[in-house]
Amino acid sequence: MPVGQLVWMSFGDVRLVAGDFQWRPVGFENFIRMFGDETFAISLRNSSVFIFWTVALTMVLGTVLALATDRLVRSQQTVQNVLIWPAIVAPVVVSVVWLLILSPQIGLLNRILITFGIEPQAWLGESFGAMASIIVLDVWHWTPIVFLFVYTAVRGLDQSVLEAARVDGATYLRQVRDIILPLIAPALVGAAAIRLIMGVKAFDEMYLLTFGGPGTATTVITIYLRAVFFDSFDYGYGSALSVTVVLLVAFVLVLALVYRSVRRRFSND
Amino acid sequence: MTIVVPLLWMVLIAFQQPRAIIAPGWRFEFSLHNFAEVFNPNTVFGSQVLNSLIIVVAATGLTLVIATFASYSLSQLQWSRRVVLGVLSGAALLQVIPPMTLVPGLYATLTNIGLVNTLGGLILVNTVFNLPFALIMTKFSFDALPVELKESASVDGTSEFGVFRRIMLPLAMPGISAVGIFTAIQVWNEFLFGLVFTSGGRTAPITVGIAALIQPQEIRFGGMAAIGVVTAIPIIILAIAANRQIVSGLVGGAVKG
Asked: Core-most of A124, A135, B53, B92, by most CB within 10 Å?
């Protein structure tokens, strides 16, 4: 039902008048306006950069951690337990944690720099630093999800196959590359898809840490949407942007599915 | 290391004397000042923690009750395949939509029924957003039970509801409690809805309270860290105590994202 309402609102000029929504039809005006909207373009680009790096880094780190934990002889359970902590702590708290680390005045990072005689930095105060910071934060926050996915998949592998490879004298790296990774490919694809969706949804951390700034350096899609809805109260236009974002996500997912089925058909032939 | 150090730093700051927080260097002076400052009767944070607790209990309870009945029905009561698949794929699809895009529509709906800025509104929205995932997961739990169980109970003359309550529900309980724990964590951590559907203050959940401390002009680091600790500790204790349920929740939470 909210979805229907969203689509309906996107074709109108919607204003809140004395606590009541008033809807005036404007056809495709909202959608046309989007193409001239520079901030929307910037937010799309920022989201793409953010999503690309966070998905790539969490995938690599999560997989490496999962394989390493699987190789541990002792205390696997404990390591696994601690490794999921960042993922279950509230995003708001994660923001607090990183604010305390990145803050120019009191932050842990600058304290360490000063101790080693290096010039302290204004991490969140500059465009590159701010984007890098929220990427690092997101990677810290969500690598555990990838870790759990891969770890569960690796634990579920048929040990006899790996045993056979070991007997044949395959090195561990070769086992990983030729056996483990292909076998857990479905889990990897699943994890990547989830991380992609999470990247689109990401909001809390940017809202609290940088508020989309400095300037528009970390204004991702969700941050921009909030501003359109709750600072400009432009519900019609905001809805049109929302519809577009949902369609874009759906499009990417469908594209991925089509690509997969096409590739599967070719590899079967 | 990389996981524990940032968290420990927050704990340290929380127990640090406010003057020492701002001072350069590594001196540490233990003090409960930050906690006392944040959780005194004159601030809203106490009632916000209470709000969060109420929302968690109510939303998780509602989610579980609705999800259990619905998924039992889907799993055991011979709906046509098309209905079952339709509901499931609909539920999965909802997970893909960023909640932010639905905010204006929900805001309009909540305004119309007078639930903006109320606990009831937040309970409702949290339930709606956690329901699809809970439904999918509890259905898996019921699917895993052997059909013979139900058949033999029916032969004994037990009513459909009796079968559900006395036989199937207890057997599916481990799965359902995993879903419950996971849902509770999600609701406890929720920030966006609390932010946009309340006007802050005494009606907001604690996550919004923390955010209120992060003002660009003057960040209150000590208080922020103290509330952060209070918000994070229950979850981490839960993680240690109910690790298995949480892991299965997170992994199953695939669709949830």
From this structure: A124
Nearest residue on chain A to B19, judged by CA atoms?
A106
Nearest by CB to residue B22, choosing from A85, A105, A229, is: A105
Tokens of B184: 């509770």
Phi/psi of residue A32, nearest 5 degrees: -70, -40
Instruction: Determine the Cα–Cα distance for residues B108 and A175; give it in Å rounded to an integer.
Output: 56
Position B218 scores a pLDDT of 64
* pLDDT tens digits, A106-122: 777 777 777 777 777 77
Per-residue pLDDT tens over the stretch A231-256: 877 777 888 888 888 888 888 878 87
**Cα gap B70→B207, rounded to integer Å:** 31
* Local confidence band at A16 (pLDDT 50, 70, 90 cut-offs): low
CA distances from A204 to A90, A177, A198, B184 (A): 10, 37, 12, 18
Is the four-CA dihedral B111, B112, B114, B115 of positive or negative sign? negative
CB A249 to CB B98 under 8 A?
yes
For residues A233 and A19, the answer to whether their CB atoms sit within 8 Å is no
